[in-house]
Amino acid sequence: MNGQSKAMINLLKGWPNPTLLPKVQIKAAASKVLSDSNLSTQGLLYGPLPGSEPLRVQLAAWLTKFYKPERPIGWERICISGGASQNLACILQVFSDPVYTRNIWMVSPTYFLACRVFEDSGFHGRLRAVPEDDEGIDIDFLRSKLQQSEREAVANGNTKPLLKPPRPWSKIYRHIIYAVPTFANPSSKTMSLERRQQLVRIAREYDALVITDDVYDQLQWTVSSTNSTSLEEAIEPRIVDIDRFLDGGAQRSGADGFGNAVSSGSFSKIVAPGGRSGWAEGTETFIFGLSNVYVLSHLGLIGILTDLRRGSTNSGSAPSQLTASFMTELLESGELEKHLHEKLQPAYARRYRAMIAAIKDVLVPMGVTLPQSDRAVVGGYFIWFSLPDPIKADDFAAQAQAEEQVIVGPGSLFEVYGDAKEGTLSREVRVCFAWVEEALLSEGIARLGRVIKTMRSAKLDGGKSANALGQRGLPDPRYQ
């Protein structure tokens, strides 16, 4: 049977399978909101500057219950957004300057679509890759590069922001650090508590803002199939929580109150990506500044005239205001938690275990290796593995699609734009267990095993297959 006669199995696409979307719950929430004149009016009109207050209140309570910080999360620390990607773009508008902000430091491998957001914000050529090990980001590497970047900035006279005016509700950070600390996309790794604490301290030392995508945290389960209990608490504190409390916290003596971390959250992975709704959490000072790029608040005539200069979407008001009203109902009714614990966690656990079992049975005996293999709790959407020498991931991905009709993500797709380290990700592959039908996961891995066997037998050196990949181009960027 040749490749073209087989059904395509897309293990690259990072979307939820349609059977996992809570259509009934969303319909019920929408019906309740639109049937209530007060709720529907709030949802259909312009919203307040930081977004729906009822949703902020519900999120604060839910996040407090899940992360269990030293003190409850205040709803004033949260603003509503159009999701994690919009968060990133808007954070850069308010808190970075394309000249004064020296570099964007990205944990490598990285979520490749974030690179485009940074480049669109004026940082083309200044994205820098920071390697990770099984504990997370390499702090020693990051420190040495930050020191070098600071020396260069001083030598070039880059001592103050040039393109952004001073504003009392904002600040410009000298550095931006981007990471997905828990169940990372793409590497699936979870950063240790010690590394998270070290990252906060180094961010404070070098006036850096740590932006974290915390979008997979609730999608977690035990590795062992004998434990079917849902997990209702986070396995590690978020970096924004560590910044809030560590060594006196963001409000410590001498600090400016903006903090050095912001958490980006989204309903895309836990409800539905089409809802285009999410949130950001940081200090109250930071969130006030971030809110100003989203909306023009209902401040009265004098406030409006003052506020007209405050951002890119002044005339649009709070993002995702109608969807926010639906999300509020899902949280308040308990339906979102029920969906997480009774539907998503069990379903993704089954999918993960099916795929990881196939990888261990088929690929590991062929020399494939997995990161953080001793974890008790895993999660997210992805599994990351290393191919055996001399097979290269680009060649492997090309042949998998051409011969076996399986699409995977080669490591080169997840390199930091403009700072790819030669050979660093050349044998790495990302596969997703969230999208394809559950019954096809093991079949997809079996096909990949045949690719490895064929490539080993032929002793391919990368020539023909690499050219095939180049002709095909990168996978559709929507496939995350």
Your description of this structure?
The chain has about 475 residues and is α/β, with parallel strands linked by helices. The protein has helices at about 25-35, 35-45, 55-65, 85-95, 110-125, 140-155, 195-205, 240-245, 285-295, 300-305, 320-335, 335-365, 395-405, 440-460, 465-470; strands spanning about 10, 80, 105-110, 125-135, 135, 175-180, 210-215, 220, 260-265, 280, 375-380, 380-385, 405, 410, 430. Strand 3, helix 5 and strand 4 (about 125-135) form a beta-alpha-beta unit. Helix 1 (about 25-35) packs across helix 2 and helix 12 (about 335-365) runs parallel beside helix 14.
Please outline the helices and strands.
Blueprint: E1 9-10, H1 23-35, H2 37-44, H3 53-67, E2 78-81, H4 84-95, E3 103-108, H5 112-123, E4 127-133, E5 136-137, H6 139-155, E6 175-179, H7 193-205, E7 208-213, E8 220-222, H8 239-245, E9 261-266, E10 278-281, H9 284-294, H10 300-307, H11 321-333, H12 335-363, E11 377-379, E12 382-386, H13 393-404, E13 406-407, E14 409-410, E15 428-432, H14 441-458, H15 463-472
Parallel strand pairs: 1-13, 3-4, 3-6, 6-7, 7-9
Antiparallel strand pairs: 2-10, 4-5, 8-11, 9-10, 12-15, 14-15
Helix pairs in contact: 1-2, 1-11, 2-11, 3-11, 4-5, 4-9, 12-14, 13-14, 13-15
